[in-house]
Design goal:
The complex is a heterodimer of chains A (110) and B (114). Chain A has 110 residues and is mostly beta strands. In chain A, 0% of the residues lie in helices and 60% in strands. Chain A is globular, with a radius of gyration of 13 Å.
């Protein structure tokens, strides 16, 4: 069964305290792995797509990496405006479905 | 921001009544999706469309139907709303790629079924 698991469920960081969010997946075949940011009351906002193991993408304080079984979203020197829920999703190679994790709620304290 | 709008943005209805949610896009993307988001479950696919009048079921399709008569509009209908369908509903679109694809989401509709 295709499955996506994110950890931790919630994370509180001091401003400037770097950390990583994890997304592990079990799928029959991976076409792509996606990271989204979601603010309260809004739709998910696209951040990154990763296609193959070893790939890395960066945007400002965020860096996403991918291995054969998991992805990490590294947050370097976070700011309070980085507070949000971060969602991971995978697109499987069979069909056109996407599977989402339940997200990590990040709070960055000034 | 991707040109996706959803209407209504909020709706309160009673058990047993029919409800239709609308998703409208201005991107001319081929694929459109309906998801629901509930605490502890994340986003779950209800139905999706891969073209006008072409639709398929997702993992939680029971109690829902969809229609797409134009490229830009994708309707989600709850034939007879139940309290278990209280949720936040998101529409998403994607262009459809050979290798992989990126979904872009609308602002959501909060539905409460009393």
């Amino acid at each position: 069964e295709d499955q996506v698991t994110q950890s931790p469920e919630a994370l509180r960081l001091q401003e400037g305290e770097s950390s990583s969010l994890n997304c592990s997946y079990t799928v029959s075949g991976l076409r792509g792995l996606f990271w989204y940011r979601q603010d309260p009351g809004k739709g998910p906002e696209f951040l990154f797509t990763l296609y193959s193991a070893g790939e890395e993408k960066e945007k400002e304080r965020l860096k996403a990496t991918l291995t054969k079984k998991e992805s990490f979203l590294h947050i370097t020197a976070p700011k309070p405006e980085d507070s949000a829920t971060y969602l991971c999703a995978v697109q499987v190679s069979t069909g056109n479905q996407f599977y989402f994790g339940t997200g990590t709620s990040l709070t960055v304290i000034p | 921001d991707a040109g996706i709008t959803q209407s209504p943005r909020h709706k309160v209805t009673e058990t047993g009544t029919p409800v239709t949610l609308r998703c409208h896009q201005t991107e001319n993307h081929r694929y459109m999706y309906w998801y629901r988001q509930d605490p502890g479950h994340g986003l779950r696919l209800i139905h999706y469309s891969y073209g006008v009048k072409d639709t398929d079921k997702g993992e939680v399709s029971d109690g829902y139907s969809v229609s797409r008569s134009k490229t830009e509009d994708f309707l989600l209908t709850l034939e007879s709303a139940t309290s278990s369908q209280t949720s936040v509903y998101f529409c998403a679109i994607s262009a459809g790629g050979v290798s992989t694809d990126t979904q872009y989401f609308g602002p959501g509709t909060r539905l409460t079924v009393l």
